[in-house]
Amino acid sequence: MLELARGISQWAHGFKNGVIFVFNTGEEEGLNGAHSFITQHPWSRAIRFVIDLEAMGIGGKSSLFQGGSAPWAIETFAKVAKYPSGQIIAQDLFLSGAVKSATDLQVYQEVAGLSGLDFAYSDATAVYHTKNDKLKLLKPGSLQHLGENMLAFLLHTARSSRFQKEAGVEREGGTGQTQAIYFDVLGKYMVVYTQRFASMLHNSVILQSLLIWITSLLMGGYPGAISFGLSCLSIVLMWIFSLSLTILVAFIIPLMSTSPVPYIAYPWLVIGLFGAPAILGALTGQHVGFFFLKKYLRHVYKKRVPRLSHNVQENLIEWEAERWLFKSGFIQWLILLVVGNFFKVGSSFLALIWLVSPAFSYGLMEATLSPSRLPKQLKIITLILGLAMPVLVSAGMIIRLVGTIIGVFARFERSPGSAPDWLGSLIVAIFSAAVVCLMLVYLLSYIHLSGAKGLVIFAMCTLLALTLTAVSTGIFPAFTEDISRAVNVVHVVDATGRYGNQDPASFVSLFSATPGKLTKEVENLKDEEFACGKNKTLDFVTFTVNYGCWSSKDSNNGWSKLDIPELHVESDSMSDIRKTRVLIDTKLATRWSLAVNREEISDFTFEVDSEELVPSGHKSMVDGWHIIQFSGGKNSPTKFHLNLFWSTNTIHPSQKAYKQAEDTASLLLKLRTDVNMVTPKVERVLQKLPHWCSLFGKSTSPYTLAFLTALPVQF
Taking 60 as the threshold, does the pLDDT of residue 661 lie above it? Predict the structure, then answer.
């Protein structure tokens, strides 16, 4: 951004619009920096358009991954950028909720109604928020790629006389038909068109495809209809066998490897672990369909051309079955296109390309107008022409998507131990099977008659066996010095039981957002007496540790009881509704998280020094709790007031004596305060951890010293 500002200042001739550079923090705590700027800064009223520069990796191309509501901006970017890069499939994943994340652009869109573009690096996603996420590891080419594209776009937009009009239209809001569909081809050219045009194009292709299929089936008569059904069966069997084998491998991996995701450091292992069984399964399922097709066609050809010799007849049957297998690929892509078009999914263009290009190639090179004409073997040129464009457009996208998915597993579990160990591999398995069944269906149809089927099966079995062996023996470790496992080492002082006159519990907790046990990690910590398992659930307010390791040995040093935060009830009264005023004293901490029980509390206000920070009304709830996260500077206040308004079904304070004993375990407030301090126990643990472990640096994670306290419902 600094280099862009320097470049723009030298080229700022004929500008009709200003360019503001906003440097802000507080994103991880809740997009606070962006919210502060757009709601409080005097320049915010002049903003008409936003460009958000993001990173969820350490390099690669800076690609556009959100911005469909601003087609004019994407068209401009595609026209002026030197190396335009962007895929709407990333935007679809964000909008679907599959990606549990948000960016500053969301604040500008929801709070100010602005449109904008979101760019991000996504290579080496596994290092995100770890010690390897360093500026020195960012490739200069990645910065150059972003800089050249963005400088050209900013200069063009700043000089545009149409900018105010275009941005104004977007701010007023548009229909879904004006959403932009975009994708790049090898990072050299970007295709951009509107949802309206996409719908027209998709509807046209769908209608023509249905017309061709209906005409073909009518001309083919009853045999054609049965062959069509059997080709559909081959598709179903292909998916079943491919999914079954890859899912089986996903369940086997945690039993064979020390890590349930052993491919994080070496993503190419996925080719052998999941790609090979996916191809084996798809080929097997298609072969079964091929067998049934040949069996039926043998019956048809005996009646149709009984005078032909047996060898000639067998060749015709195999060629006819091969053609039906090839055409079965059209069926699944047509179904995806219909579904995607109905739900207005931007990445439906993939279904369009994978349907139209092979169908056009088949029609050009293979199709005949007469059903009485005998079939011939498929030509290799048909496959090459049919797959050239789809592979060109989607190969890079799929490779990057696989890399991103694998990298995400380094911090997959928001609440450690909450998901089964095999879940990450199951996701990769299903994705791999889907890619193989969708994109290799045309290629696999050629293998059955090529004589290479046995060789392909042997190669896939060998590749699977070798990668499983490599994973089980640790030849390729799951984590390395450069691609480390994300762990947290936190000295916890748990004072949640103090209202029951219990002393605070002190221990060091070791847990990881990366799936898998911590057995290898604690091997070097035997003298620290760590115990691991799921029998000690730890509530950190914003997340829960269901599996981890903990040690109480020598844990009473490095902290003081005076530093334990307090939740003090100043008043509790009943008029029309019950009202409670609570003083929150976070002591040393200027960074904390508070959870309010929304099943008991209908509303609340939040104050500091008599200034209302959170007004009443519009309180959200997740699993029955409303979460407040606070992060301040050195001079930040540490005392706050919380005014609670109870739900109408709560019981009057005078009735507390009649409460059952088990109700005292219910909590009204939960507080976690974070102190950036390393206790002697934590320091020893950090020194003894393996070199392939890295503290998880996400700023919503606890610091190395955390205090927990709570206020029960029956205080």
Answer: no
